[in-house]
Amino acid sequence: xxxxxxxxxxxxNVGAVLRLGACLGVAVDLIEPMGFQxxxxxxxxxxxxxxDHVEIVRHVGxxxxxxxxxxxxxxxxxxxxxxxxxSFTFRPDDVxxxxxESAGVPAAVAQECDAKVRIPIRAEVRSMNLASAAAxxxxxxxxxxxxxxx
Length: 150
Fold this sequence. Notes:
With 150 residues, the chain is α/β, with parallel strands linked by helices. It has one domain (2-144): SPOUT methyltransferase, trefoil knot domain (Alpha/beta knot, 3-Layer(aba) Sandwich), CATH 3.40.1280.10. 31% of the residues lie in helices and 17% in strands. The protein has 5 helices and 6 strands, in the order E-H-E-H-E-H-E-E-H-E-H. The chain has helices at 11-24, 41-47, 62-67, 107-111, 130-144, and strands spanning 2-6, 27-31, 56-59, 74-77, 95-98, 115-117. The protein has a 6-stranded parallel β-sheet.
């Protein structure tokens, strides 16, 4: 299982997701352009020394990223999906895709995804923080396939 971030805009969120990947043993794909410079100190400050323990793959755009997936299923997390996180059946090679903080993913990207999943939240709020959403989704996915670290 992997996490992919589509054009992330906030360095601190990327750092938190990198730390999550390090802790749970999951690689992180970053689909550019990003809304900050890669060497932004906020990435390292949030990821701390965990950044040295996660595989990071940067892609020049969505098309380049999509070419690397092989047979893996691309699972988009979006507030526009019907299936809920806890009723979705994950596979060990799924790639969990999260859109940019301000706008998610464009319709063309959403159409190329193999599945779309929604994290249940209260109706009064718009969306969850990117790193929090990634943690919930990845935790459930790894739990289902028996791949949580010991």
